[in-house]
Amino acid sequence: MRCMNITRSNTLNFIGLETVYPTASGETLTRLHLDGAASPLPCTAALDAITELLPHYSNTHSYVHNCAKISTKALTWAHSQILNFVNAPQQTYTSIFLGAGTTSAVNRVARGLHGLRPEKKVVLISAMEHHANDLPHRQYENQVHYIPLTGDGIQLGAIDLKALENLLVAHSGNVNYIAVSSVSNVTGIKNPVAEMADLAHKHDAFILVDGAQSVSHTNTDLGADDVDFFIFSGHKLYAPMSPGVMIAKQSLLSQMSGQDLGGGSVSTVSYYDYELLPNYPDREQAGTPNIVGAVALANVAQVLSQQAQTVQANEKVVISTLFDALNNLPNITVYGDHLLARTGALAFNHRNIDHGLLAAILNDYYAIAVRNECFCAHPYVSSLLKQELWELDLSDIPEEEQEGYINRKRGMVRVSISAYNTNADVERLIKALNEIEINMKELEQNYQPQADGSYAHINFRLDWSKELSFL
Ligand SMILES: Cc1ncc(COP(=O)(O)O)c(C=O)c1O
Fold it and tell me: Where in the chain is CATH 3.90.1150.10?
């Protein structure tokens, strides 16, 4: 049995596209997953790799017995596949698997960069970040400044490069690093990564790019972009069982080595001293990594890169169909600058239907999974909603209900698309939204607003125990 180049077929298939759920109207419908920005459906290439590796599975870092040799080889292959996937030159970069996703890796970088240059207190973060690429940088007495976006309010756009440059000049000599996402997890708006990296380096700042939302939708080219750290979650790349990934410049890591210590990263250890291994990624990856998950992820990355052109062409059509269709509906506001290219996700609101209610109806009556609320990007969502919240008419709402009322308006509905979504999915969503618009009075009566801003159907509940035997 081979352990290298695990894939048997280079076709992309996904698990769960055929799953059916009962609905509140008594029908059973095939679910429609429009929540890939949170986690897309698993790719079968992940399962293929796991099935092939498990009969050989063993801990790595040993060349004595056969399965350790095979598992070690497979893990080494996974590291290098991931570097290939993001076009990171192997002599410059290394890939580290750690934790459950982007969050673990960002925390590690924030800690490492503070340790490397504690005297540089300023960190610049874009105003559209997920909390995972914001809160970790607020530690260590950092002075965090937010890089403004182009546009304003509902029409906020991408990172304003001029404003970034101004901040770098204003804090000259004190900026340790900038932390930005390549694509927003709310609006799907793309940021100019290469230009940001160039500006950062001109001002002696490092750059960390949160690639969680771009990695499955666009070609990542670290050879061209020259970022110092590129981070993403394996589960966003169709491999939900996989770890987080940190791709880092070796020259930089060598200056902040040994943050996480333990077995596998050291060559010699005495009671008084230890020596880190000379080679990457081992010296940076203490403990047993998630070997099976990493190999599954690498196999998905390999298959996906073979299909990248087709996948990206399809996604481009689907997102633009979705954007146009939503904009053509009455009462819908799509957030973010309408002139900018999007990938993966769009967020919107209906003028007369709270985001929580709309998302619940789409799920309960249409088996369509979308996400709502603030998507762990509260400051950004608040900026996009500022004007609408300000203009709310509270005159008919009793004072004691006003807070709950405002909370139910604070949020959006996000539709996100993945490699398996098609224009037919967009049609199904738009048909559902049109029907909801027509039948809203009736539908509304079936829901009870909850204290947390969500809506619960008065008599429909999914019976979990019918879906999973172990529940
Ligand atoms: C842009 C972005 N960054 C970070 C994260 C956090 O990822 P994880 O929960 O896998 O750590 C997400 C998750 O949605 C995200 O969209």
Answer: 20-37+308-466
